[in-house]
Amino acid sequence: MFKPIRLIPDNPNIPFLKLRMPALCLSAFLIIASLALCFTVGLNFGIDFKGGLVIEAKFKDAPDVTALRTELNGLNLGQITLQQVGADASDVMFRIPQQTGGDAGNQTAIAAVRGHFGDRVAEYRRIEAVGPQVGGELIKTSIYAVLLSIGGTLSYLWFRFDRGFSIAAVVCLLHDVILTLGFFAILHLDFDLSTVAAVLLISGYSLNDTVVVFDRVRENMRKYRSKPFLEIAHLSLNETLFRTMMTSGTTLLVLVSLFVFGGEVIRNFTTALIFGIVIGTYSSIYVATPVWLLLEKKRA
User: Fold this and answer.
1) Which of 7, 98, 125, 272 has the fewest beta carbons closer than 10 A?
2) Are residues 194 and 268 in the same domain?
3) What are the backbone dihedrals phi and psi of residue 186, each rounded to the nearest 5 degrees, phi first?
4) Could you tell me which of 46, 62, 132, 134 has the C-alpha nearest to residue 95?
């Protein structure tokens, strides 16, 4: 009989909470820095929000991107960005800004690109056009979606647990969302609808991890009534450590595979999720639990 491989001992006793105050100070600094980046540098909104055209073309022969940029600048379509996508150098994505004249102007731009390249393109794999009014509406609805999810989370947790747990969980949730936005701002990655979906998924994952820890804390509070809250939190984090690491580890394995083999179309989506899973695991230990301890320190 083979013994199972155990990455974590049966009864871990890792003193996570010894670093709770430095971790909270680090998280506060990262939140402030992320907000500053969002308001100064700003997010690199994609076509979904700004409006414009995205054309993904597969050329018969691998083109020179610099030469293509020079060619397209001669079409007078605005500041066009080019990017080779995937492992094949013959796949190129064009991002063309919103054209004057609305849909008619966009269709004229698509026709100009098609006519310019002619038989040099084997296949147009993707052509998307989004108007500026639609983009503005998408920004508004995305903000509403995030705010409603946070409000619903606070209401549910207030009903399911008590005030201290619910406030700590929402602080943890805001921490993960703001740091993800700062991550996209500092790297200037495209922020589109798929990224908004990733942010909502990160919120759900982080919340799930936090609720598991808090549920164990509540059970141990009933079981060990004479122990101080700090010891109960320390015990609960160690008891849920195996579940946390296994869930995060298996999720990251899938996401890394999607990042490597999934192609450029879902690259920003998987990047946001990988960052969010790491931050969510950290925050459930070093943000949610320490904040709860600060809120409950005056209770008997």
Assistant:
1) 7
2) yes
3) -70, -30
4) 46
Q: Which domain holds residue 115?
A: 52-130
Q: How confident is the model over 55-96, as pLDDT tens digits? A: 888 888 877 777 887 887 777 777 777 777 766 677 888 877
* Angle at the Cα of 157 from the Cα atoms of 156 and 159, rounded to 5 degrees: 65
Token pair 């869930």 in the structure block, residue: 247
Tokens representing 30 are 């990262």
Q: Would 205 be classed as within a structural domain? A: yes
Contacts of 253 (CB under 8 A, 6+ apart): none
Question: With the CA atoms of 23, 27, 29 and 35 taken in that order, what torsion angle do they form, in degrees rounded to the nearest 10?
Answer: 180
Structure tokens at 51: 């409006």
pLDDT digits (tens, 9 = 90+) for 174-221: 899 899 999 988 888 878 777 888 888 888 888 888 888 888 888 888
CATH number at residue 78: 3.30.70.3400
- In the chain, the number of structural domains is 2
Confidence of residue 6 (pLDDT cuts 50, 70, 90): low
Q: E strands within 138-247?
A: 190-191
> Are 116 and 158 found together in one domain?
no
Q: 11 lies in a domain?
A: no
Domain boundary residue, one of 130, 148, 183: 130
Question: Dihedral through CA 96, CA 98, CA 104, CA 110, nearest 10?
Answer: 0
74 DSSP assignment: T
Alpha carbon of residue 145 to chain centroid: 15
Characterize the bridge pairing of strands 190-191 and 44-45: parallel
In angstroms, rounded to a whole number, what is the distance separating the alpha carbons of residues 262 and 264? 7
